[in-house]
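Below is how a single chain appears once it has passed through the pipeline. First comes the sequence as given, then the structure the pipeline wrote out for it. We keep one example in the README because the format questions we get most often are answered faster by looking than by reading.
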Amino acid sequence: MTAVEYIEQSGVPEAMWPNLAEWFGWFEKQGMVGIVEDKDGIAGVALARCIKDGQEPNHYVHSEEGENVFVDLTISSKGAKSLRCLLLLLWERFGPRKRITFNRSGKPRSYDYMTFMRKARV
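Resulting structure:
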């Protein structure tokens, strides 16, 4: 199963987008896709990017030097363990930043980046 198929089968709203493969490809091309696998296959997928302070998280906007990480999509079928692995991949890709924001059912939820990572034990 590919990561796009995993997203489609997850039932998240983004899975219904007609441009899902294009949207995913934009993240993948820039190395902003995290995929966690176990013996059964894909266990989690995350799409994240950086934005500058005050910048709206409009689609296809990424600023490598941005102070904040915006997580557009997180899907995990294996619970906390795969989520921690996804956060570790995020840390490896972006390093320390100021804030982390998750898109939760269309509503952004922001946290202090370092505090969030410590609480998640990354």
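The beta strands are 33-38, 41-51, 68-76, 99-104, 107-112.

See the next section for the split statistics.
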